[in-house]
Design brief:
By secondary structure, the protein is mainly α. It has a domain of 72 residues. 64% of the residues lie in helices and 12% in strands. The chain contains 2 helices and 2 strands. Strands 1-2 form a two-stranded antiparallel ribbon. Helix 1 packs antiparallel against helix 2. The protein is elongated, with a radius of gyration of 31 Å.
Length: 103
């Protein structure tokens, strides 16, 4: 946990340093849309868009896995509750001895 926090803090500091050192404007064109912004801002927005697309593309698989996990947990709970209540035995005890040979 601490390693991830320290790594995130270092990446944030590097991003701020990058933004401060790259204030020059950059023009971005996409189809009929055109805008101008700092190099750092354009790169940060592009990175954010990439992360968003990645998360959205993995969302269906994560939802499916969560549903399956929930179903398996529910099934396991129902099986556990079934085994916790003793059921009457329909067969009579065997007349064989413990060694398995007939008496």
């Amino acid at each position: 946990m601490r390693f991830g926090l320290v790594l995130s803090l270092l990446l944030a500091i590097l991003a701020v340093l990058f933004a401060v050192q790259n204030p020059q404007p950059m023009e971005v064109q996409l189809l009929f849309f055109s805008t101008e912004g700092s190099t750092a801002l354009v790169l940060i927005l592009t990175f954010g868009l990439g992360v968003t697309v990645g998360l959205l593309s993995s969302l269906p698989g994560r939802i499916r896995a969560r549903r399956e996990l929930k179903a398996l947990r529910k099934k396991q709970q129902s099986e556990d509750s079934d085994t916790s209540t003793p059921k009457p035995s329909s067969s009579s005890p065997s007349s064989k001895s413990e060694t398995g040979s007939p008496s």
